Amino acid sequence: MANALDPILKPKTVAVIGASRSRNTIGHELLANLIDRGFTGAVYPVNPHAHAIHAVRAYPSIGAVPEPVDLAIIVVPKEAVIPAAEECGQNGVKGLIIISAGFREVGTEGADRERELVKVIQRYGMRMVGPNCMGVLNANPAFSMNATFAPSWPPYGRLAFVSQSGAMGLSVLDYASEYGIGISQFVSMGNKPDVSGNDLLLQWEDDDTVDTILMYVENFGNPKNFLRIATRISKRKPIIVVKSGRSAVGARAASSHTGALAASDTAVDALMQQAGVIRAGSVEELFDIAMAFSGQPLPKSRRTAVMTNSGGPGILAADALTLNGLEVPRLQRETLEKLRPHFPAEATIGNPLDMIASATPSGYRAALDALLSDPKIDSALAIFV
């Protein structure tokens, strides 16, 4: 179901199990973020040793909360996570975010604990983000939910971002806030034994608040499903991925970080190319590509025109486009006739279109109008040197 994760991403009631009065603790900061950012639903701190936290009444247990809870955020020591999840299931909670670490990422004992946790959520039909994550954010003013311990709050926009690394998520939110890049939803997956990147792709596929999907991943849990889902979605919404663990050293580090199993980087490249996914080499490149998409619609096909005031860059651009699977087709005769009156005899009228160094803004405008009216052209690349 496309809206299966609504209790986590779009809840009406949130309980914070492990909310704390102690400053500089995750339970304190996360509750403060929910309240200070103006979450539009109800917030219930759960702590058996506190009457109120952040001036909000606290409850001794999830069962004592006076109304049904959509989302419970669990911020307790690892030994207390499974009992807390069990109590959530018994009280009809629909979604969990488990911030606590100490699961598969720490070895055999943690992996056993994680398997028991998964059994609990499956028994009660709950969905879970985490464990070992930093939370979820929905910047849509209809929710205004910062269920993370991140200090940054990006502006609302139409990018959705999922990260397998909490620290990378913090960095991305800081970057987006600093440069005014709008985020719709953000999810830190952590170890992802339940909610995965594939689940989030399905959630965002028909979400009309999301135009572009960004991902930081250390592994693909189910590559076949990713290929099937991403191939369908990427035709309508760009999917841009930073995949770490490209080297042997990086792959080992990814495995110890979230328990991720490494795959051949050549295989990963082939998977992304087949799925129509764009691979970025860094967070900066990820956002550069995302911002390019945010300013224009997706082209209908691969057919591209190149217009330039210098021949060399135009040739290099045509090479790059062709090598990356795009087409630089010949222009129709009618298009050539439209272009000729606007440029001197020294110009090269074709594709690429070299308007030479004397090209003016009005010449660029005339060229763009003519090129985009050609039925063989779906997009145009303008170069000015």
Describe the structure in your own words.
With 385 residues, the chain is an alpha/beta fold. The protein has 13 helices and 17 strands. It is elongated and about 85 Å long. It folds into 2 domains: 6-292, Succinyl-CoA synthetase domains (Rossmann fold, 3-Layer(aba) Sandwich), CATH 3.40.50.261; 304-383, Succinyl-CoA synthetase domains (Rossmann fold), CATH 3.40.50.261. It has helices at residues 6-9, 26-36, 78-90, 108-124, 166-179, 197-205, 223-233, 248-258, 265-275, 283-294, 311-323, 333-339, 361-372; strands at 13-17, 42-46, 52-53, 56-57, 71-74, 95-98, 127-129, 135-138, 145-148, 156-163, 183-188, 212-217, 239-243, 278-279, 304-308, 353-354, 379-383. The model has no long low-confidence stretch (mean pLDDT 93).
